[in-house]
Amino acid sequence: MSHRAVVGPRGGGPVPHPHSVFPGHRRTRTGTEPLTAHSALGARLVLSAVALPLFAAGAALLALWAVSTGPAGSPDTAVLVVLAGVCALFTAVSAVDIAVIRRRRAERR
Prior knowledge:
Shape: elongated
Radius of gyration: 23 Å
Oligomer: single chain
Strand order of the largest sheet: 1-2
Distance between the termini: 34 Å
Helix content: 55-70%
Structural class: mainly alpha
Largest sheet: 2 strands, antiparallel
Number of helices: 2
């Protein structure tokens, strides 16, 4: 338990500080984080914006390589397909992350 936490009525768990509830915030403060703490939405947006085209290009190139590789080719076609699928998954994760960041920034305004 934090040194700032106050024990609730009837010996319950810690009660948040009265000034810990700000409009629009998802969680109540526990008293251990700074009042001016912000999430790194800008850094996440930059990383996702860079990752999205890179992983999309990687997925496309690996898929084309898998199609052009013969049955006895090296590397195996299955390996290339799995790698293309992993790149496609990371592309989708980056796209979803960009959408979430845009929604959170719009809520903040």
